[in-house]
Design goal:
Length: about 270
């Protein structure tokens, strides 16, 4: 027997430890190329998706979203919405979202942004000439309108989504709405996010999940994308208010978030 302090280790134990350590080192070394391959696969698949989306002049999709909030009692509550998004690059956008607490439509014709609250029959307009990319930045930075899935509409999808990424993995494949998809997982300092991208000639996103790591209970935002089309009606980006609609200032529209007004919340965002 060999002794070291109060611990005794048999020769047989030492031999066993040597074997185990050797096996562990072999496993670690053999897994390194695979880990690198996973990283390369994830990045290349995301890049192919980005290139495909950016190449589409017109897009029309329907969406379902789930957003989780954490109450002061540390209870997780989920709010669900559905809607449609229509895009014509570089400067036209229409998005309609209906939830249990709001019915909001955003129409942008390249010059004027209209936010239409169908629930209250009021609308607001601001002049904002530019691109859809600039509009999304304006809504986030100046008006606090957060739309985590909006990154997928940007012309530089890949650069925006890969910003601050510290880990990328190709998990494998999954099936979303009956469609086989590549399942990718990414991490940055504040969020873990996953994306499922259709296999084949149309590498389109089918599901997108963002998990906040900076909030207790790790709330998530989930986006399901369906009915991907590349044709948009010519009049899709014209806004005509209803006859009795009332025009108000943007800050007078009230809460246009996916979570009802007055809810004390913390949630996932990216």
């Amino acid at each position: 027997m060999m002794k070291q302090g109060t611990r005794s280790i048999s020769i047989g134990s030492i031999a066993w430890l040597v074997i185990v350590v050797g096996v562990m080192l072999a496993v670690n070394v053999s897994s390194m190329p695979r880990a690198q391959a996973q990283n390369d696969d994830a990045v290349s698949i995301l890049k192919a998706m980005s290139n495909y989306i950016a190449s589409q002049q017109n897009l029309s999709v329907t969406i379902d979203t789930d957003i989780e909030i954490i109450t002061p009692e540390v209870q997780k509550i989920q709010f669900t919405s559905s809607g449609q998004v229509q895009l014509s690059r570089p400067d036209k956008l229409r998005a309609h979202r209906v939830g249990g607490y709001t019915d909001i439509e955003i129409v942008y014709d390249g010059k004027t942004l209209t936010v239409n609250s169908k629930a209250s029959n009021t609308f607001a307009q601001i002049e904002s000439p530019g691109s859809v990319d600039q509009l999304i930045d304006l809504l986030r930075d100046k008006y606090g309108v957060m739309a985590p899935g909006a990154d997928l509409l940007l012309s530089d999808v890949f650069d925006v989504m890969m910003e601050d990424v510290i880990d990328a993995k190709h998990i494998g494949r999954g099936v979303i709405d009956g469609v086989e998809c590549e399942h990718l997982a990414f991490r940055d300092s504040e969020t873990d996010w996953q994306i499922w991208i259709e296999v084949g000639a149309r590498p389109i996103p089918r599901k997108y999940v963002i998990t906040s790591k900076t909030e207790a209970a790790a709330p998530q935002y989930t986006l399901h994308i369906k009915d991907w089309k590349t044709d948009v009606p010519a009049d899709a980006f014209a806004f005509t208010p209803s006859q009795d609609a009332r025009k108000v200032a943007l800050n007078a529209l009230g809460d246009i978030d996916e979570v009802p007004q007055g809810t004390v919340k913390s949630g996932a965002g990216k």
